[in-house]
Design brief:
Strand content: 15-25%
Low-confidence stretches: 1-26, 30-50, 262-276
CATH topology of the largest domain: TIM Barrel
CATH architecture of the largest domain: Alpha-Beta Barrel
Mean pLDDT: 75
Largest sheet: 7 strands, mixed
Number of strands: 12
Number of helices: 6
Shape: elongated
Number of domains: 2
CATH class of the largest domain: Alpha Beta
CATH superfamily of the largest domain: Metal-dependent hydrolases
Structural class: alpha/beta
Distance between the termini: 46 Å
Length: 277
């Protein structure tokens, strides 16, 4: 299989830089080739009130091999964009736009989702105005990142979301609330089981984060302080990190944690299922 480069041509980059922050679903032009195509669809949306006029758009992406993300074969088509909406896909040869991107010989695909991202951490995080446009990710075709991984998050979740909105960022962001961060806020880095009162405090903080927009709970059971948890409750959406080189050793332990059957040190039977600890 031929590897597909994600390097954009010079004439494409200015349009991507201009439009990427506003696009919920970025159309990315990728160097490459495909073997089979399909018939050209016709889904042209002509502005109401003038059925005879040539449709007009803000941006036209013409002649690309379109992958619609559903698993269908690619097809050659033009794409018309108005504002931040893909308004038409089909033969738009009669359409007009102030910005026209020639995608001939390239693949046009929906933006990629990085489901395990640390773009919320470090000196070049999205919170840094100098890195907020995330050109290193956007130019690879990534338009959405899922952050707050491995049990670590930037809290309060609502404050971080508001910072992104006020500052502006080049990506869509899905935030997770980190079990380790919540536990450390309540217990520090103590190597023990949480008390009932501490569990209630942690549950309240998780609930607050979810109400502020977090999409779920992440945990990193190989890291401190997550490794000292006895059981972890399963919420509406949960992401657990297991390093591949440790997976054989941790598989049984994680299974027990998630089912609430972990045997406590020094005991001969399973511990009772509890909320986040």
């Amino acid at each position: 299989m031929r590897r597909c480069s994600t390097r954009l041509t010079a004439d494409v980059r200015p349009a991507v830089r201009k439009l990427a922050p506003a696009w919920p679903l970025l159309v990315l032009l990728i160097c490459g080739s495909a073997a089979n195509g399909a018939a050209l669809p016709s889904t042209i949306d002509t502005p109401a009130g003038d059925s005879q006029a040539a449709p007009s758009f803000d941006v036209l992406v013409v002649g690309g091999r379109v992958f619609d993300g559903t698993g269908n074969p690619w097809f050659v088509a033009d794409i018309g964009i108005r504002g931040d909406v893909i308004a038409a896909v089909g033969d738009l040869s009669a359409a007009r736009a102030p910005t026209v991107i020639d995608a001939s010989g390239r693949l046009v695909v929906p933006g990629f989702i990085d489901i395990h991202s640390h773009a919320d951490e470090g000196r070049i995080s999205l919170a840094n105005p100098d890195a907020a446009a995330a050109p290193n990710l956007v130019t690879q075709g990534i338009t959405t990142v899922v952050v707050g991984q491995d049990g670590r998050c930037q809290c309060p979740v609502g404050e971080r979301a508001e910072l992104y909105r006020a500052q502006g960022i080049g990506l869509n962001v899905v935030q997770l609330v980190g079990h380790g961060t919540i536990r450390q806020q309540v217990m520090g880095r103590e190597q023990r089981e949480a008390t009932t009162e501490e569990i209630e405090q942690m549950a309240a903080l998780v609930r607050q984060a979810m109400e502020e927009g977090a999409a779920g709970l992440s945990s990193g059971l190989e890291y401190n302080p997550g490794r000292f948890s006895v059981t972890v409750a399963i919420g509406p959406s949960r992401v657990t990190r297991i390093r591949s080189d440790m997976a054989p050793l941790l598989a049984g332990e994680v299974s027990s944690l998630l089912s609430g059957r972990r045997t406590r040190p020094g005991s001969s039977g399973p511990s009772a299922h509890r909320s986040p600890a």
